[in-house]
Amino acid sequence: MFRGVFHKLLGLLFFLVLATVGGVVAFYAERYSMGVLCALAMLVSAILLLRLYFYNTRKITFMFNAIESGDFSFRFSETEYISCDRAFNQSLNRLKELSLKTRNEIREQEQYYELILSHVITGVVVIDEKGNVFQTNHEALRLLGMPVFTHIHQLYRVDEALPALFQELRSGDTQSVTVHTERGTAHLALQASAVTIRG
Predict the structure, then answer these.
(1) Residues near 123 by Cβ (< 8 Å), separated by ≥ 6?
(2) Same structural domain for residues 87 and 154?
(3) 78-135: per-residue pLDDT in tens?
(4) Do 67 and 25 reside in the same domain of the chain?
(5) What domain range is 86 assigned to?
(6) Is residue 188 within 8 Å of 179, Cβ to Cβ?
(7) Residue 86 to residue 188: CA distance in whole angstroms
(8) Same domain, 98 and 139
(9) Each residue of 94-110: pLDDT tens digit?
(10) What burial letters (b/e) apply to 161-182, b meaning 16+ CB within 10 Å?
């Protein structure tokens, strides 16, 4: 996909130097039409050099955009003839592999924590300040008599006072409540803990 940057750079630099020398010689020899042609060649060379300058930047941007969107299927060519191009592509591929490894380790860790959470005999519900439910365990769903719990507004079905109770509970607070579900009466002892992750 991205090949031969070093060769292009050398070619453009050579062409730029040649056009500059040709332009200077043409103006000293008062061959203005030739000088204008050389100046035009210098301008084209400078534009192409700028485009080449941003070439590796685009390559890095492409890689970060792909990683951010969870696409790890790309691979930069490591068969470049020029060693610095090959080394740069190898470094980008290595960075991709490290990012993929880290993502997989985080996923394994999350699955491990979910497994532990599902075996805890206390009901656990993880909620943000907007009332979105990020995680629950089986025991919490059983106690509340709910098959799915994604937002605290769903607690209206269990008891009209529960959503406000969940929202007003602050870190360290403990609250007892009795709810009537389809399975009977349940006495719940609610306790809140606050955790800040990434702000």
Answers:
(1) 136, 137, 139, 140, 141, 142, 143, 144, 188
(2) no
(3) 886 666 677 888 889 999 999 999 999 989 988 888 888 888 888 899 888 888 998 8
(4) yes
(5) 5-107
(6) yes
(7) 63
(8) no
(9) 999 999 999 999 899 88
(10) ebbebbeebeeeeeeeeebeee
